[in-house]
Amino acid sequence: MSDLLAARAQMAMSLGFHIIFAVLGIGMPLLMVLSERQWLRTRDPVWLDLTKRWSKGTAILFAVGAVSGTVLSFELGLLWPAFMAYAGAIIGMPFSLEGFAFFTEAIFLGIYLYGWTKLSARAHWWAGVAVAVSGTISGIFVVFANAWMNAPTGFRLVDGKPVDIDPIAAMLNPAAFSQSLHMTLAAFATTGIAVAGIHAWMLRRDASSAFHRAALKVALMVAVPASLLQVVSGDLSAKFLATWQPVKLAAMEGHFETARGASLVIGGIPDEDAGVTRYAITVPRMLSVLAFGDPDAEVRGLNAFPRAEWPPVAITHGAFQVMVGLGSLMALASLWVIVCWVRKREVARNRPLLTFLALLTPAGFIAVEAGWVVTEVGRQPWIIHGFMRTADAVTPMPGLVIPFTIFTGLYLFLGVIVAWLLWAQIIRVRPA
Hints:
With 432 residues, the chain is mostly helical. It has 13 helices and 10 strands.
């Protein structure tokens, strides 16, 4: 394994592990706060039991996410020193602000966990709100930094070096809004669907359980709007890519030839040598509509760009199809829930819907992983789009296969432990 491949594999593995905890770290505090709000309104002990269970899960996920996030920060410097030397002063602000948000979250999480008997009920709830808000803001700042890599702004290049750096302009780059919105909604949708799926499975066995009915209600309150708004967010992202990263859009869509009234490609296998996507379903003019809002707009294909600037087309296209497919299923489930609400039918007694939700439990996590593959692999061969190639940013240090193997083993072990803790603390114990 080459140094470049080992560095990329280790970073991908670390990010793939951490993103699960980052997503849950954004979504779970919101569920926790909504549940406690219900307890404050009703004083029903079921809501209090649910809130305390979810607070334990939030604490476990926060602890592991903090560790895996710290590893990622070290890896940026150790594996990608040239990148940090080039971009550190430019993207330092969102990383610094993320640190402040992270420590705010940690402080209020401690107050929340240990303040049940020391704070008034409303003060305790507001501490939970602070955890939820700071956790969300923390994630947004990290995405701002990644968005800059896709749309680098806020500096001038003189003799190959960035000068006249404007960190605010860099942080508020053209990709910042669409990418942070997409990721935040993904976190809420993923967490909501996963939690709803777990409790939907339990309700299939006991539809009368007040505990699981309460958990399902709160989870769907978050999952339904987030899943449906994600469709709008995806449209914003497509329009950004059409202007700023057209080669990534072409790879995502398996679109080879520049055309007006370009067709949307669904599924299929890209054949880079032949310049076609085989076995695909096409929807006439739809790609032009999605990219520019005009059915006759011209959409550039991969063949309009040098072959050396193509990302790995099959991986990018495949990951994009997985993300969109699973996101569509989550949106479909949300529409089904809305139909039940409108018709005043209990979701908790709709066995087909409960089964569908249970099957979708891992869907959001898989979609998020696929989405990050699209974001990172689709930007290749650039680590900073248009300015620095990934091959020029990697460390020259040999022997990266060894730490890659060690970290992979540790992450697998840690993942098993976390899954067991969550099962033991939240699911296995019978509701009071």
